[in-house]
Amino acid sequence: MREPGRDCRLCPRLATYRRANRRHFPEFHNAPVPSFGGGDARLLVVGLAPGLKGANRTGRPFTGDYAGDLLYATLSKFGFAHGRYGALATDGLALVAARVTNAVRCVPPENKPTPAEVATCRPFLAAEIAALPRLKALLALGTIAHAAVLASFGLTPGRHPFAHGAEHALTPRIRLFDSYHCSRLNTNTGRLTQAMFETVFARIAAYLAQRERG
């Protein structure tokens, strides 16, 4: 899989922020966060970007903050992960026919990448998608991830609008599923509940089972 180098400088603002974080938090990962999971993935989960004290600290997507608690518990419940999630990259958790990544690989200030930064990082996402021969489903967590996935397929949100629970045919064999991001903000405000999140995963599991049958 193509991944940005540890000292990627394609986005000057993010590179500057990364250098500052290395001074303030020298024990953190403080580099582009690589995807998690194997090349046999049938499901690719795409988030926004690493959190400062989550994935930017641990070096694994959605690891070390609340979003990871909900995401990995749900992946485990639906058979996409096994082992104990311990909020560390060394916890031994393994994904099953699934992979987790972000639209932007470096932590952005205030968790807000610019449109230019999302576009600059998109080739890494597109290359990853192209390198997954068994891929059948993608889950976009939020509008930015949704738009990044669509752009990787040469599609636009205008014809495929984001909505929680929506589904979009990307190719005859690959489908995109949408969910609100599993952030603490969304769950605390009730915008996303555990039941809502699990409903999306149930539909993904059903779709993959159907594809497996025929």
Your description of this structure?
The protein is α/β, with parallel strands linked by helices and 214 residues long. It has a single domain (12-213), classed as Uracil-DNA Glycosylase, subunit E (3-Layer(aba) Sandwich), CATH 3.40.470. The protein is 37% helix and 15% strand. The chain has seven helices and eight strands. The strands form two sheets. Strands 1-5-2-6-8-7 form a six-stranded mixed β-sheet, sandwiched between helices. Strands 3-4 form a two-stranded antiparallel sheet. A hairpin with a 2-residue loop joins strand 7 (167-171) and strand 8. The longest helix is centred in the C-terminal third of the chain and has 20 residues, at 194-213. It is globular. The model has no long low-confidence stretch (mean pLDDT 96).
Summarize the structure.
By secondary structure, the chain is an alpha/beta fold. Helix content is 37%, strand content 15%. Strand 7 (167-171) and strand 8 (174-179) form a beta hairpin.
The CA-CA distance between the termini, in Å, is 28 Å
Q: Helix amount, in percent?
A: 25-40%
For the secondary structure, the number of strands is 8
Q: Please give the CATH class.
A: Alpha Beta
Number of domains: 1
The assigned structural class equals: alpha/beta
The CATH homologous superfamily corresponds to Uracil-DNA glycosylase-like domain
> What is the ordering of alpha helices and beta strands?
HEEHHEEEHEHEEHH
Secondary structure tally, helices = 7
Overall pLDDT level: 96
Strand content: 5-15%
The general outline is: globular
What composes the largest sheet? Answer: 6 strands, mixed
Q: What is the CATH-assigned architecture?
A: 3-Layer(aba) Sandwich
Using only C-alpha atoms, the radius of gyration works out to 16 Å
Task: Give the CATH topology.
Answer: Uracil-DNA Glycosylase, subunit E
Q: Enumerate the spans where pLDDT stays under 50 for 5 or more consecutive residues.
A: none
Lateral strand order in the biggest sheet: 1-5-2-6-8-7
